[in-house]
Amino acid sequence: MFAFAASRRGFLGGTAALVALLPGLARAAAGNAQLGTALQGVAARLLRRSPEQATLLGADRGANADLAGAWSDGTPAGIAEDRRAYAECRALLAAVPRTGLAGADITNLEAATWALTTAKDGEGFGYGFVGPSGGSPYAVTQQNGTYSQAAEFLDSYHRLEDKAGADAYVSRLGKVAALFDAETDKIRADAALGVVPPAFVLANAIGQQQALAKTPAGQSKFVQSYARRAAKLGLPDRSAELTAMVESQLYPALARQTAALQALPRSDDAGVWKLPQGDAYYRYNLRAQTTTSLSPDEIHKTGWEQNRAYEAEMDAILKAQGITQGSVGARAAALNNDPRFLEADSDAGRAKVIADVQGAIDGIRKLLPAISKLGLKAPIEVKRVPVDIQDGASLGYMNFAAPDGSRPAIYYINLKKMDFWPRWTLATLSAHEGLPGHAWQGAYLAEHPEVVSPVAQLIGFNAFVEGWALYAEQLVDEAGYYAKDPFGRLGYLNAARFRAVRLIVDTGIHAMKWSRDKAIEVMMAETGRARGAVTSEIDRYCVSPGQACGYKIGHNEILRQRARAKAALGAKWDQRDFNDALVVTGGVPLASLPGVVDRMIGAVRA
After folding, report:
1. Share of residues in the chain with pLDDT > 70 (%)
2. Distance between CA atoms of 342 and 349, rounded to whole angstroms?
3. How far from 474 is each of 286, 399, 471, 493, 570, CA to CA, in Å?
4. In whole angstroms, what is the distance from residue 180 CA to residue 168 CA?
5. For every residue of 386-443, which 3-state class applies, written as one string?
6. Taking residues 103-110, what's their average pLDDT?
7. How much is the pTM?
8. Mean pLDDT of the residues in the chain
9. In whole angstroms, what is the distance from residue 477 CA to residue 489 CA?
10. I need a surface site. Which of 12, 319, 338, 368 has the fewest CB within 10 A?
11. How far apart are CA 128 and CA 202, in angstroms?
12. Is the peptide bond before 76 cis (omega within 30 degrees of 0)?
């Protein structure tokens, strides 16, 4: 799962998703000068609307240094200003003549226009947060909100290198209470429209908030992160000041939000079909997340067909290992609990999982010359999902490296329970989040700022970004990584099957009115994953409708385009040309992918 700045777990929604456009827009010049100027104008406007993204991109310096001490504005006035900025950006792009554009410029303009138009299309629903990558219908959930994101953002991403960074940290911390209150106002406003998270989501979010509130202010990550880093730099100790802020401002605002969540009516209905314009809202999110016009029924059918195909491959491997009794899902479930593949439920066991993940990354790195010609360094730091947010976090996710080289890609793995990640599953996870998956995508942007195309803006396109990561899992298998590891290959197939099942359960929940329990039971039966892991996943789909469908739909389209390119090039086919052509785009809507591939084919032929 790619978590580039909150576009999925979101600091205030739409702007954060849109500013995922920035790596290319902010640095590169298009071949067409007028388009280049327009894209620069888009970048400038969007950057000012999302200080968090500016920090993640290393762009909160110079003329934008004030952004280092700020947050996005989630108040009604701030959302209105976001929409005004989007409209200005659309006008800039609409003024660019289409005649005379060639090559990547066509893709860049198509993709940027698609993103901004998608944001416009979502504005009419009037609840939650929407952007070019879809949105969440709920202001605060078990995985989404200031309570689960602000401390980790300040700890992992805020630059604290000197006095200016220290002052900006204090400035940001002093504004966290206002973030809480803006979300709380949104919770109440949406509830008045009949938009309330499911009861199980509320219970999880409230539980996490109550646990956070029990931490003494001086021991909170908000204070300790600053104190630890300031001490290393010899900066003044401002712990007393920060503690007072947390105690007198932040925690009371948190308490107000918890009270607002507790006051909401309860419903066990899991899908967005229950919301105002619920069916249209889900179709909008499917379009935004898959960048296709596929209907829920079409996606549901695809999920079942591909699920059965992967099941047959897994069955053959299991039988070859002498594991023959029960369904494929039941046999996979037994392997999840097999002591041979589990580390101890202890700090040492968790450290071993992280070491195994790093070992998988190191092993896969040796295969990269057969996968890509780019020769990227792609440094990766593996971290455990922080304990204070692990209850609501996804099982694994990646944040791209900073484009200025100041921070490597950070790969988070959720180690709440050890049966989440039996050893036979770790290599595939590492291929997806690390190499040649998300970290590889981000490394091109970080390591080639002087040549990166403006289309690198489009890393916010879920279907492409997650589709590439699934394709990366397949590339590792095709490169022979599992040649002597049948259980590892089983893990790869089970992960692919898991993504096919996502198509089934996401559409089941939101279009077919499945209950949470039914979705959990179907996913457990089909994939063999542990109940705790599946529950975490299903709850994520409930609050991020359509997002889980982007993975397999994107993967399917990449494979279709690869087959087309291979047939067209014949003896000149080299998969590295195809792979690199996709990576250097940074991401495109799936509708633009054929044009990218056509240009690759033409270049190879030439």
Report:
1. 92
2. 9
3. 24, 21, 5, 9, 21
4. 19
5. CHHHCCCCCCEEEECCCCCCCCCEEEEECCCCHHHCCHHHHHHHHHHHCCCCHHHHHH
6. 85
7. 0.91
8. 91
9. 7
10. 319
11. 15
12. no
User: What are 557's two structure tokens?
Assistant: 């389209």
Burial (Cβ within 10 Å: 0-12, 13-18, ≥19) of residue 569: middle
Q: Looking at residues 308-317, what average pLDDT do you find?
A: 98
pLDDT tens-digit readout, 507-519: 999 999 999 999 9
Q: What is the rounded CA–CA span in Å between residue 74 and residue 19?
A: 15
Distances (CA, A) of 426 to 7, 377, 395, 555: 25, 22, 12, 20
Give the pair of three-digit tokens for residue 377. 């360094």
> What is the reported pLDDT for 605?
97
Query: What distances in angstroms separate CA 448 from CA 377, 439, 452, 584, one per listed residue?
Result: 11, 14, 6, 9
| Run of H or E residues at 300 | helix 296-320
Token readout for 178 is 């206002």
Helix (H, G, I), strand (E, B) or coil at 380: strand
* Three-class secondary structure of residue 220 per DSSP: coil
The torsion angle over the Cα atoms of residues 77, 82, 84 and 89, rounded to 10 degrees, is 170
Residue whose tokens read 């040796």: 366
Give CA separation, 477 vs 175, 371, 496, 564, in Å.
47, 11, 12, 21
CB-CB contact of 596 with 107 (8 Å): yes
Query: Rounded CA gap, 20 and 354, in Å?
Result: 28
Q: Take residue 591 and report the two structure tokens written for it.
A: 């509708």
Instruction: Work out the number of other CB atoms within 10 angstroms of the CB of residue 604.
Output: 16
The residues, any chain, with a CB within 8 Å of residue 87's CB and separated by 6 or more, are 120
* Residue at 221: amino acid letter: K
Distance CA 174, CA 206 (A): 23
